[in-house]
Amino acid sequence: MRLGTIIPRRDGGNAADKPTVISLGQVWMDVMLDVDDMPQAGDFAMTSHTKPTPGGSYRTLDAASRMGVRAQHAGVIGDGVWATAIRMLLRRNGIDHIGENLDGEDSGFRLVFQDEEGRKTYIAHYGAEANGDEHTFDAINPPHGAVVHIGGNTLMNQTAAGLDAFIRRAGNDPRKRDWTLVLNSTNALNQVSDKMIEDLVLARPIWSCNRQEAGTLADRLGVHIDESSTMTVGGGFDKSMKLLCDELGNALRAPLVVRAGSRGAWVRQPGGQVEHIEGFPTKAVHTRSAGACHTGVMCAMLAKGWSLTDAVRIANAAASLAIKNSDYGVPVCPSYRETMALLEAQ
Question: Per the database record, which ranges form the Carbohydrate kinase PfkB domain (predicted)?
């Protein structure tokens, strides 16, 4: 399967024309801690290893960068210990920071405890990334052909005011933009204001989510999905996914991508039929989702000029390789060459 022969790609002949992915998401540091059992109040516990890793939209940008596009982080970074680590990792991995700098406050972090049964417990401290305002993204003007990614984490705190201002500036007609808007949904939509939800739906971005997030979004929008007709022996999951994408896609009136792990993803264009893009089943060796890798690769391929369907197919391949590789429990996105090699082998 030689995808490179399907459509022309807009890879750009010089630096100025290089395909660009900009993320309006937030980046913090995750401190991963393996424990035998979570200690009770006043108790003591040991961890077998710990390693700070960048979280939030970093992994989306890292995946995009590995696909050979210009990756830019437009979120807020502070000036403390965690912020310094974030800046170093962005530079090391070729990701430009084009967002605001907040003096006098560090970036945030999360403690992620995982016990022997694989259950995770989170303790989060929000920092500079969450303390933007309505002007946070005023200076962000996407170049022609760019893909702008919105992380679900940006919808729920003070920085959401700046995101809402950006969304309203983008307008409600995707055909009048010369760039593409991609939104990662979140399971925490109960923390997002009605006004923000309304503005996002009106903007009609490409919605990217996993099955659980899609269900949460449907609930928040009041979309009732009657799955009784899908409860058959064999094929029930596929029918359920198609129904979910149809009903949710009708409500959004926008492109929708719903991921389902090794089964790949279901894609629906406005007014079109739901298309199932098969995945690449493989054995997972990590404790975190490869969803960020999938979204980052999809954004990169869209920036290069691929169709949404082909971008999702390439992202499926990258995600399948990512879950086979782990850096202390975090899936590692493959390179562009490795991803295309898997597709060529099919």
Answer: 20-326
Q: Taking the chain, what is the end-to-end CA distance rounded to the nearest angstrom?
A: 6
Contact assessment for residue 72 and residue 47, using Cβ atoms and an 8 Å cutoff: no
Cα 214 from Cα 207, distance rounded (Å) = 9
At 228, the pLDDT band (50, 70, 90 cuts) reads: low
- The pTM (predicted TM-score) of the whole model is 0.90
Helix axes 336-345, 308-322, angle to 10 degrees: 100
Give CA–CA dist 185/194, Å, rounded: 15
Residue 253 tokens read as: 């009136």
Dihedrals phi, psi of 336, to nearest 5 degrees: -60, -45
Question: What tokens were used for 134?
Answer: 């309505």
- DSSP output for 6-67: TS-----SSGGG--EEEE-S-EEEEEEEEESSPPPTT----EEEEEEEEEETHHHHHHHHHT
Spatial separation of the C-alpha atoms in residues 53 and 27, rounded to whole Å: 10
Residue 276 pLDDT greater than 80, yes or no: yes
The identity of residue 240, as a single letter, is S
Give the DSSP H or E segment for 110: strand 109-114
Place of tokens 């923390």: 191
Strand, helix or coil for residue 220: helix
Burial class (CB in 10 A: 0-12, 13-18, 19+), 4: exposed
Q: Is the pLDDT higher at 42 or at 170?
A: 170
- Report whether 127 contacts 77 (CB < 8 A): no
| Residue 312 structure tokens | 């999702």
> Please, what are the domains in the chain?
20-345 (3.40.1190.20)
Q: DSSP 3-state assignment of 180?
A: strand
Neighbours of 103 (CB within 10 A): 7
CB proximity list for 41: less than 8 A, separation 6 or greater = none
CA distance 270 to 250: 7
What would the two tokens of residue 329 be?
A: 């429990």
Q: Residue holding tokens 């992620």?
A: 112
